[in-house]
Amino acid sequence: MASASLNHRRADSAAAELPPLGPLERRLLNEFQRDFPLSPTPYRELARRLGVSEVEVLATLERLTAAGAVSRVGPVFRPHRIGASTLAAMAVPAGRLAEIAALVSGYAEVNHNYEREHRYNLWFVVTGATKQRLRQVLFDIERKSGLPVLDLPLMNDYHIDLGFDIRWS
Amino acid sequence: MELSDNDRRLVAAIQHGLPLTARPYAAVAEQLGMDESEVIRRIERMLARGVIKRLGVVVRHHELGYRANGMVVWDLPNDSVDAVGRRIKALPFVTLCYRRPRRPPDWPYNLFCMIHGHDRDEVLANLALLRERCGLEAVPHEVLFSRRRYKQRGAQYVSPPAPSAKVLPLARPGAG
Fold this sequence. Notes:
The complex is a heterodimer.
Chain A: H1 9-12, H2 23-31, H3 42-50, H4 54-66, E1 70-77, E2 84-90, H5 97-105, E3 110-116, E4 122-128, H6 131-145, E5 150-152, E6 156-157
Antiparallel strand pairs in A: 2-4, 2-5, 3-4
Chain B: H1 5-14, H2 24-32, H3 36-48, E1 52-59, E2 68-74, H4 81-89, E3 94-99, E4 111-117, H5 120-133, E5 141-152
């Protein structure tokens, strides 16, 4: 069940670096998460639909990327269609969490790494060209940390990714 | 279904995003020694084959005010996981829904889904809605809220050609 943690204010208190978003930013963030144009000048196509200039679209996307609101303009790959990936979890003693998290984040193959409220408190995704490479990374982490790693590879993906409808609040 | 070497080179070139320039496909093509039209055709084909789920703006929830995210894990009878997974995926506030193996005795859960919300209460309200809609009131589960995000970026499926020195990224404070 959901644990009521005394610590959860910590996550909420991180200051947003994002400046207030205008209508152009909001539309760029919400309306182009899929079906990005495959014409030679896709940003001009976005500009036409938004009624602004191509330069403005590019500058706004640059700004949103720099502020961290946009991760990228590009593809989301279906897991396991290219290469291999797995979700891994570790139960790390509180005093070693920063050290082990840094160890894990140091691998280029690790793309997500989160602390979560649970006995299994470190959760990360490992992605690589082959399953063998994933096993090497997990084994290496176990050896360097002296802690066991739960390997939870995906067996079935039910979700159809249509993007995420952002509600501004 | 296997990707050709040229598809893999293309994946390596675009996995962290298209360039923010007027002709992004031409820029990628030049880097790979292909034609712009070939790059576009290959991306189209990967979309049609489902290798690429979607192409477009990939947002980061945390920065957009979705400060809470709960990974909900369920212990379902093996023969009902697929049916429940299909019901859960239809809900708009669910952003991922995966079946994964149990690891007894440490880990009994076999279905994972992710719920993002502006705060914890919103995540928990959506979870209550999900349990009711999908008939999961009696199913053992846990919610693992994120507390801190150490690293988040697009997956690297294909390594860059020259291995570079590993640099420890700075931990980004705050949950994602």
